[in-house]
Amino acid sequence: MFSRAYKTLVTIPPLAWVALFLLTPYALMFCYSFWSVSSLQIIVHSWNLENYRQLLQRPVYWETLLRSMWIAARVMMFSLLLGYPLAYFLSFYGGKRKDLLYQMVIIPLWVSYLVRAYAWKTILGSDGVLNGLLQYTHLTRHPLEFFLYSPFAVVLTLTHIYTPFAFLPIYAALEHIPRNLIEASHDLGATPAQTFGKVIFPLSIPGVLAGATFAFVLSLGDFLAPLLLGGPSGIMISNIVVSLFGAAYNWPLGAAISLCMLLVVVSLLFFSERLEKKWSFS
Amino acid sequence: MSNRTGSRSRWLTGYAFAVFAFLYLPILVLIVYSFNGEGVGGFPPHHLTLDWYQTLFGDGAIWDSVLNSLEVALAAMLIALAFGVPAALALDRAQFPGKALFRRLVLLPLILPGIITGLSLLMLFDLMRVKLSLLTITLGHGTALISVATTEIFAGLQKLDRAQEEASLDLGANYWQTFWRVTVPNLKLPIIGAALLIFTLSMDEIAVSFFLIGRDNTLPLEIWGRLRRGITPEINAISTIIFFFSLVAIVVWYRLRTKAEGNVAVGEELVETAG
Fold first, then answer.
1. d(CA A186, CA A50)
2. Which of A147, A255, B1, B174 has the maximum number of C-beta atoms within 10 A of its C-beta?
């Protein structure tokens, strides 16, 4: 129905734009990771594996990567623990207020990232709201310092930010479960727990996988929450990248680390897609 | 049996409300403390005041950054739509080599941490010797948010009745006329919805902007700079204002969305994107 010209006209401009502003930059990042910086702080376009050797040899890099993955894993777990029951509640017990409740979940999702991270800082700080409350109720006499500037603060804040992200795909998956399947399960004598374990949960797995992937990937690459709330022990891999692109001025090494991060992310997407296909209900 | 179901649902209701409390607590704290005479922190808040709003309104740097952000968001919205609409049409209607790769590439910024998009663009601009400025931020936002435009409009196209376009072509309208008189009017709601979403996301974006910033700050970067220096209560005031603006934008967007295609679509796209 649509002519060749029409198809070309709608295809070429976005294709060109994406090639210039997405594909080329990613390719450039790949190239940079094999270059180096001279002693005069000039980027030398000579190809070698020096950056990758440093990554393997200097434990600070891969230890931080592992620590970041551990933080991201905790964020993912907590987001699922909060997001799944919430989605389940909305989908099966939401009733007439379903629409309103749904909006209430997505509102925090689009409310400024920075604003929310900052709010946690005002809550957790040594002269913050939580310490004020503890002293006001005479539970503690002196402000407790350990809430803020710790991995705990980072995990808490990122969980707050990514719980709605985990919620959305799970909710979508639950909403898609044909309700007569659940009735059939009840009619055939399954207890509610069995219905959940054998019907509802397996059918919601694609949503869980998507939600988990989002929470993990987005928190893995975060560098603002650790800067704002993490302190020295809450530094994540992206913070190292930021410093390499800034004061430390070693773009090639920074590019190599980013590429490793990209590799983790893309392989995760790949696996979650494979798993999703396996569990998809069709 | 029904008793046990009842207690189960009570537990679940309680849990769900606890999660809601967790989601809204920080926002509530922020709003309350924007009126707190003692500034941020301490409990309970007292000496309610509008002083911080007054400080805020007298603060030129903040308002400059708000204007910058509005400019960036508007331009980024236009870029994202200008390329996102054809991209959705192409994905819906054309077959070309590398289509699957193209689809993935367009959607990638939606799932990729902002630092990777930001840094890779920084390298590109550095290579092209483009000086960092609001323009580079705009290009970054526009490019990253094509993903949002594409998913929203692609979803709209799936529900579009092809017969109308066919009729228009059969009756002698050319493709250009058909596009503006049939396709676009039918996609009005998804386009407005996408525009609103892109605008809001750009206004708030910081991870990509962080690397592409020149001399002029956007609002989130201005706030970021102040946060690094310490907690200042006028940030609570501006955050409260931002919150209410995003609230309005999101509720309008959601209404448009449900009007256009029923409920669950947001999550569905995320599932598709991750996959």
1. 62
2. A255
**CA angle, residues A159, A165, A168, in degrees to nearest 5:** 135
- Residue with more model confidence, A68 or A109: A68
What residues does each domain of chain A span? 58-279
Give the CA distances from residue A66 to residues A71, A119, B25, B59, B229, in Å, rounded to whole numbers and listed in that order: 9, 28, 31, 43, 30
CA dihedral in degrees (A142, A146, A148, A152; nearest 10)?
A: -150
- Which of A76, A80, A82, A118 is most worth mutating to test chain B (most B CB atoms within 10 A of its CB)? A118
Show the domain range for B239. 57-274
Task: Tell me the shortest Cα–Cα distance from A76 to chain B, in angstroms.
Answer: 15
| CA distance, residue B41 to nearest chain A CA (Å) | 4
Number of neighbouring beta carbons within 10 Å of residue A67 = 16
For the segment A132-173, what is each residue's pLDDT rounded down to a tens digit? 788 778 777 777 777 788 889 999 999 999 999 999 999 999
Can you give the pLDDT at residue A173?
A: 92
In this structure, is residue B100 part of a structural domain? yes
**C-alpha distances out from residue A76 to A82, B22, B96, B145, B267, Å:** 10, 16, 37, 24, 17
Q: What is the pTM of this model?
A: 0.88
Q: B 5-64 residues with CB below 8 A of A?
A: 5, 8-9, 12-13, 15-16, 19-20, 22-27, 29-30, 33, 40-44
% chain A with pLDDT above 90: 47
Per-residue pLDDT at A230: 86
For chain B, the residue count is 275
pLDDT at B274: 45
Q: Which of B33, B166, B263 sits opposite A122 (nearest CB)?
A: B33
Cis peptide before B44 (omega within 30 of 0): yes
Judge whether residue A53 has pLDDT over 70.
yes
Does residue B121 or residue A9 have the better pLDDT? Answer: B121
For residues A37 and A44, the answer to whether their CB atoms sit within 8 Å is yes
Collect all residues with Cβ–Cβ distance below 8 Å to B143 and sequence separation of at least 6: A17, A18, A21, A22, B79, B109, B117, B121
Number of domains present in the structure of chain B: 1
| Three-class SS state of B213 | coil
- Largest Cα span, chain B: 72
Domain A58-279 of CATH type 1.10.3720.10: yes
